[in-house]
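Task card 7
Instruction: Convert sequence to structure tokens.
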Amino acid sequence: MGEYLFTQRTRDDQRIAENLSEEFSGYLVAFDAQSMYDAALEAARTQQSRVLVLDALCVVQVDTASEMNGQRFITAEIDSVLKGAPGDYGFYDAGRAGRYWFRAALNGFSGADAMTGVYASPIKNGDALVGVLVYISQVQEIYESLRDMQIRILSWMAIVAAAVLVINALVLRTITRPIGELNEGIARMSKGELSARVRVRGNNEFAGLARAFNSMSERLEQLDNSRSQFVSNASHELKTPLSTMKILIETLMYQDPLDPAMTKEFLTDVNKEIDRLNRIVSDLLTLVNIDNGMKLNLAELDIGALLQEQARRLLPLARENGIELECAAVKEPLEVSGDALKLQQVVYNIIDNAIKYTPRGGEVHCALTRSGKKAVIRVTDTGVGIPQEDLPHIFDRFYRVDKARSRETGGTGLGLSIVKQFVLLHGGTIDAKSAPGKGSTFIIELPLAEKKNG
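Output:
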């Protein structure tokens, strides 16, 4: 930009000086000083400049400022013209007594009070050099404009640089802080602190990563707590029959010889506790297999026929307890893709529980319906019911609503948990609705098998 402005000013001054040199050629040859002075004064006033007319010996004949008349004046530009150059241009620092400053450097800058451009053009009579016209113009306004422009550019560059630094710091902080917190959380988890969480900031990729980490950490903590609780519950459940057996056996060992009937009774109780231990161990092994990814032997099953079959198996138990067991007839065959043994266990356990927790004279009803693409099994009883505070936990492992009653009926506290896991493995759901004294309803939903075309 600076070079363009100075180049344009040089061309303008060159054009003016060349026109004046042609005009003054005749005046100088004729030694018409008055005409030269008048013409020079008019040009200087019009162009707001200073004009000097020198003869061939560089003596000033006309100076529009009337300061150097009769004096010899020589500059590098004038010397260049005397040596045959068609013209030459240079800059001077007027505040430094005419000292030459950056000859032909069109984009130079200085701290001077005033910058002056000097253009020397030859005055010829034919081919003979008869003098030199010196055209002096002020270029201070160009210099000041460029200086202001430079200051503005530098100021904007400083502002932009500062803004870039601030933005860079904010971006780095935005990126590094979440990463640092995530690394810290991972380090805490690696030391066994599963309660470690990281702060979620904003709604970007790092926030999503933080949420995923927190979710993983929470699930691991829940799993760890669940396993700890499971071990504690399992130990307690195994300890109870073992303690009972130990007491019974020690009684047989250390007491005086008992009559055969009493001995048989004690041994019968020991046998029951052993059976109970077997059931607990069997259920625990089933849950372990489920947790390790139990594989299902899938086949298309008529779920209605399966429900009717399990109801027939449990009908003698219901009659023995004075309970009416009904299973509604299925209007249409409903097929599901499932493992027959696992689904039999699901249905059997639910009906068996309904019978066990229904008082004599009560009723248990089974029904199968279709809801969209799902088969829905409902088992309803008129039993003791389940308190609302216990209802959300009935599928938890080792959870018992009435611990004394559960042990009397031979329950391990794992039956409903196994049932739920089997239902989930088949892509279904299980839910319970109940109220104390009003009975319970268990609802099992299983996806129907897709019908093959053709």
